[in-house]
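Q: Second attempt. The first request was missing the SMILES, so the protein and zinc ion are both included now.
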Amino acid sequence: MQLLKTLKIKIGKLSTSKSALLLKEYSEFQKAVNFSDEFIDKNKIYSLKQLTKLLYSEGKLKKIANLYSATYQTAYTQVLNVKRRNKNSKIKKIPLTLRHDTFKFYRTRNKLFKYFIRIPVFGLRGGILLPLYMRDFQEKDLENCIISDSKISYSNGNFFLHLTIKKEVEDKKIPIQKEKIALISIDLGERNPAVSVARVGSSMTPRFYRENIRAVRAHYRVLRQELGKKKLLKKIKQMKDKESRITKNINHRISKAIVEEAKQLKAKGFQPVISMGDLQNIRKASANKGRNMKRRINQWSYYQLQQFVTYKANWDGIPVCFISERGTSKTCHTCGNEGIRKRGLFTCSNCSMEYNADLNGAINISTRSLDYMFKDRASMTMPHVQNYKF
Ligand SMILES: [Zn+2]
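A: Got both inputs this time. The predicted holo structure:
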């Protein structure tokens, strides 16, 4: 299975002339994007081959913008990709997209900047050389990867390289060694976006991811209601986008921390496995309006978190398993009795245990995962996930 990852790297300070050249290439790219956007809308052509013929081979784009030749092609290809997903989308800007074989990314002995990229621009043979602020963790990510098509974005006077790297990960069966297993189970929290419990032998280490997704959501709900009264639909849409960006960032941070914990256990010689509740019924559940509204909305964000965790874990060769979460929130992890969940507290009437409700759920998922792994099979398969961009 092939995985993709995009590293966002700040481009170092450029000389005035270099900066002007890069900005020029970037703006010319936007011209080509806008033209392609209108052209596709007007002619309703969604075939790459046809667009290449009409926009590129017949020279239409060359009259509109001055770009390095291969970059004309990435312009309309990018627009086409957006249009194929949604024909009605209005494109404003697309980062300058560079085909992987047209730029050179490399490491040097330079003390100030370890990494550079040489990119092609219109009218200058050999292109321009850009220094990169590569972070240490990004450098580590490069191991065993192939550089793929990448982008340059521009905002508030700064340029960023979005370097896409590709990695082949074997989706093989991994035998589980009972004595070495370190199981990290994650549950959808009611109070916290996620709760995990790491189980190594008989020891259990809980972690509460306290980032407040609910507060973010409540804040934006109020704002949206106010705008709704004023019928400011465009503003509402912008705000929705912003909200989902914030939620996405939170999920990135949490998933990164979870996978980091697994990697640390691996470094100590354990065999980490991550397990989560299976949310396959999420679409069915969303048809059932009204009831369990709160949990349902939380589940959407949890579903995204699961995707991120799975992807990041797979990137580092850590298997992920999904088990049915039915009953895990209502069952006492100590005696198996059905208990009551109230205001974040789980109470069992059988063994009179009181426990953090989210943690109780995570421990149940953990126990069920262990049963599943050792009763049914002694190996785990790395699951397939669609390519996800980070
Ligand atoms: Zn109990």
